[in-house]
Amino acid sequence: NTLYIGAASYQNPDKGGLYAFTLVNGRVKPGNDYPRSVAAAGTKEYTGVLYGVAGSPVSAGGLIFYGALDGKLYAIYSVWNETQDLAIREMSNPWTTVGEETTLARPELPWERQEGTVLEGPVALQRDGKTFIVYAASACWGPNYKLGMLTWLGGDPLAAESWSRSPEPVFQRADDRSVYAPGHNTFFKSP
What we know:
By secondary structure, this protein is mostly beta strands. Helices cover 3% and strands 45% of the residues. The strands form 3 sheets. A 4-stranded antiparallel sheet has the order 4-5-6-7, with no helix packed on it. Strands 8-9-10-11 form a 4-stranded antiparallel sheet, with no helix packed on it. A hairpin with a 2-residue loop joins strand 6 and strand 7 (96-105). The radius of gyration is 17 Å and the shape is globular. It starts with a strand and ends in a 26-residue tail after the last strand.
């Protein structure tokens, strides 16, 4: 079995620019020197900058979703445009994207824009034949960081109209229960 891990790392922490890449269990691939911290550790094989063009930064929290929709693989991630948006690209394998990037969602709802115009950290949840993308919204540096959700309606996953956005957050701040900033999540299936 092979384990693929999508991650993000700074190419040059002094200059900013967080880039997505794929790690594969095994060893460091000869000739790869990016990201240096991963290659120096010698614990994983680095396959290259995921989104095809070096110099295309993703955001902090641009975690990668590898999901099978309509029999194909896709990466869904956070990317900086004028705002921090969610984008999707088809994949030919777990480390190579193909085709054009499509913006799925921008922070347009008031609750997605409280401390910042941020959508990040998309995580897939597939259950009972449905696919959901749960994402963090607003900004991690404030108490109003929360989780929103996209639901795949069927059709072309690369088309924004194939996704429905929940009008309200699915998890949010609850001061009366001492819950603040419940953003940036993941899901695990119970054994």
